[in-house]
Write a structure and sequence with these properties.
heterodimer, A: 404 residues, mainly alpha, two-stranded antiparallel ribbon, 14 helices, disordered N terminus, B: 338 residues, mainly beta, ten-stranded mixed beta sheet, six-stranded mixed beta sheet
């Protein structure tokens, strides 16, 4: 099987391998009980990463393999894997939108609206936590039970009752028997929920995005230049004027990073002053953020800072999709929060939210600053991620598409 | 143990059928050694209060439950499943004796814990669970007489946060409907009802008006699960485990069963109104519907300041807590005759 065609991967070099094994050793001091595969390769799998990067964490219980990734790709794009056979994972995570769906809020297989915005999946293997506000979901395998079986809201809509029918639909496709056998050799049962979950998780871990114009510019590829606006945006992004880099930091442009060499994994969540519906910091009840998990009042309205990779194709923005454009995002930051006028839903002065991050009030941005920042952010779009056939829907023939 | 002593005077020290049978067998010949264990079954039933003749109003998916909640609405069950862990009986000496569970798809012994899934719905009619039912927990105890039952509602902490998607997970923890994956655990209880709608009486759909507007909801959910947790997998700890220790002194498993009274469970809830957050109460600490639920099932209220009124932590109750209606055996869970 062909490997991801990331042009960044030219040579690996012993130096990179040494750095990785050193960081893996250092990683042992963290006191974590999680057992992870810290290797650059396992079995027939090898991570195709820029030489400067340490591989992501992979649970020992689900090592990567090409067969699992390929099975996972099929399952990810297969509408038969839903309660009523109408929706696939990829219906809310579209490759051409960096695995988001373009909606403010996702819609599940039964038509039920999700309270939150569908998140992108690029580099998801590097995320320390996986959803907008849940500090407890740290493995893709566990997280996947939410969209598959969750009832509030219904996403894929699988239940104990309809699961046998969904499995039967998969079994009826002759492609799956050999793929399950290859992905899970030695496991007597096939088509188990555990196998489906492990395969899709493996596929998700394979979704890497490190070949944006920014990446090529940063490593000095010939002929890749930034415009004056893009270059100034990059500088602003990393300045104490715009403050972006505090939360959108490092190679994945977020502040919840976990890789195979991580010594201390932090999982901060932030209130950016989007709401203040009751004058004392309240967020709409269906999207209260971290407080739903901790019960700590100061965690009201705190959400995870998403990676900004491919942010140019993942509109609309924020945990509830309530911010339409990148320009609007920057306006909210430059204003120190969002004001929703009287009479509108969720009216209130988010600037006065008492739980708002300390960094928000100090951001100052002119119109030119915002334009430059947006210009820079658009350089983070990775066309390889959006078009790589290894990530694509395999059900592409008209007959398959109709059947699926 | 001392809390049981007051019940001993009226404890039903009945020998089980198995023990009687073993006595009879001993009289017949000398070859078969007397059994050292006897079978026990703890049976459950859903009820909707008491009928006019004083007997429990046993209900199923087919029943219409009349007069539920503060609005007195008719309703139908859509789901009624819950986990029971670490079942023990109290023997004649007042000692708690663990029931060794039979191995089947609804129950298992895992490490130091035993766990069973009680399933009182069959996926018919409005019910939307799965077709198999499991109305009783079965197992064995040493031969003897027993006069009480002790168990915990919910999945023990040691099992609750493990990776449910692992291929090592065993039944009954593989029941997909009981996953409470958003907080890396299981639903300890999943009890759901559909109230009837005034606009379309008899359909039991769209009967719940949202105060914020929009299309009506159909189902009032009560999902009890551990909340306010930190850490993952085996390292997880929860500020509100929301597992409920129960004890029934003077309980005789051969003549009695445990009722789950939905009229009592929803007594303080307005089932036709949804004030926001999760539909019904899903153990959320900011959910307006949970306040009424906690009150009924024996919550302590931990008042916070600011926008959020309460942080429920029902598991902090001792079994003697006078506010714990579950434990007192007076309302939601209580023994009734078979």
């Amino acid at each position: 099987m062909a490997r991801p065609s990331l042009s960044v991967v030219k040579a690996w070099g012993g130096l990179a391998a040494l750095a990785i094994s050193l960081s893996a050793l250092l990683g042992c001091g963290g006191g974590s009980t999680t057992t992870v595969d810290t290797g650059l390769s396992s079995g027939d799998w090898s991570w195709q990463l820029p030489s400067t990067l340490t591989p992501p964490v992979v649970p020992l219980s689900n090592p990567m393999s090409q067969a699992k990734v390929e099975l996972g790709r099929h399952l990810f794009h297969d509408r038969r894997l839903s309660g009523n056979g109408t929706q696939s994972c990829s219906d809310c995570h579209l490759q051409e939108k960096a695995f988001t769906d373009g909606r403010a809020r996702a819609v599940g297989s039964t038509g039920e609206a999700h309270p939150r915005n569908a998140q992108g999946l690029a580099n998801v293997a590097y995320n320390a936590t996986l959803t907008w506000a849940n500090p407890l979901l740290t493995d893709l395998e566990q997280q996947m039970l939410v969209p598959l079986f969750g009832t509030n809201p219904v996403e894929m809509g699988l239940t104990n009752s309809n699961l046998p029918d969904a499995i039967a639909r998969l079994r009826a496709d002759p492609r799956y028997d050999p793929m399950f056998a290859a992905a899970f050799p030695g496991e007597a049962e096939t088509y188990t929920v555990s196998q489906i979950v492990r395969a899709i998780a493996s596929f998700q871990r394979s979704l890497m995005s490190f070949d944006s114009r920014f990446d090529r510019w940063a490593r000095g590829d010939a002929g890749v230049v930034f415009s004056a606006s893009e270059a100034r945006g990059y500088q602003l992004f990393n300045s104490e004027q715009a403050e972006c880099f505090h939360c959108h930091v490092g190679f994945n442009f977020n502040d919840q990073l976990r890789h195979a060499g991580s010594k201390l994994v932090k999982t901060p969540f932030h209130n950016t002053g989007l709401y203040n519906i009751d004058g004392v910091g309240g967020f709409p009840l269906d999207n209260v953020g971290l407080i739903a998990f901790t019960g700590v009042i100061s965690d009201m309205g705190k959400f995870r800072a998403p990676s900004l990779r491919n942010v140019g194709v993942t509109a609309p923005y924020a945990h509830d999709g309530s911010v339409a454009t990148l320009e609007d995002v920057l306006d909210n930051y430059a204003n120190g929060g969002r004001v929703i006028g009287t009479g509108l839903p969720h009216a209130g002065d988010g600037r006065l939210n008492p739980y708002k991050s300390d960094l928000i009030p100090v951001i100052r941005l002119s119109a030119q600053d915002k334009a430059d920042l947006v210009a820079f952010l658009r350089t983070l779009t990775d066309d390889d991620l959006l078009t790589n056939p290894l990530y694509a829907n395999p059900f592409t023939t008209p007959a398959a598409a109709a059947a699926n | 143990m001392q809390q049981h002593s007051k019940n001993f005077s009226f404890a039903l020290a009945a020998l089980s059928a198995a023990a009687l049978a073993s006595l009879a067998a001993c009289g017949g010949g000398g070859d078969t050694p007397a059994p050292t264990t006897q079978a026990v079954a703890l049976e459950f039933a859903a009820i909707n209060g008491i009928k006019s003749d004083g007997t429990p109003n046993v209900v199923t998916c087919a029943s219409t439950l009349s007069g539920l909640g503060t609005s007195g609405v008719d309703a139908k069950i859509t789901d009624l499943r819950f986990y029971v862990s670490n079942l023990k009986l109290i023997n004649a000496a007042g000692v708690e004796v663990a029931v060794k569970l039979d191995a089947n798809e609804f129950q298992a012994t895992i490490g130091a814990d035993s766990i069973a899934l009680v399933d009182l719905e069959d996926d018919t009619g409005v019910c939307a669970g799965d077709s198999p039912m499991n109305i009783k927990i079965t197992g064995t105890v040493p031969v003897g007489s027993y006069s009480g039952a002790i168990f915990t509602i919910g999945v023990p902490a040691a099992l609750n946060h493990l990776n449910a998607a692992a291929n090592t997970t065993v039944a009954p923890l593989t029941n997909n409907d009981m996953f409470w994956a958003w907080t890396s655990g299981y639903k300890h209880m999943k009890i759901e009802v559909n109230p009837d709608a005034a606009a379309a009486a008899g359909t039991f759909t769209s009967g719940i008006v949202k105060t914020a507007g929009g299309a009506n909801n159909s189902t009032f959910n009560f999902h009890l699960g551990s909340a306010n947790c930190t850490g993952v997998d085996a390292a997880a700890t929860c500020g509100s485990p929301n597992t409920l220790p129960m004890q029934f002194s003077g309980f005789n498993a051969s003549t009695q069963r445990i009722a789950v009274d939905l009229k009592a469970l929803f007594a303080a809830s307005n089932l036709v109104s949804e004030g926001g957050g999760a539909p019904g109460c899903m153990s959320g600490n900011t959910d307006p519907e949970c306040a009424a639920m906690w009150n009924v099932i024996g919550s302590q209220f931990k008042t916070s300041t600011g926008a959020v009124v309460v942080t429920p932590a029902i598991s902090d109750l001792s079994v003697q807590d006078s506010t714990n209606a579950f434990f007192r055996g007076e309302t939601v869970l209580r023994p009734i005759a078979k």
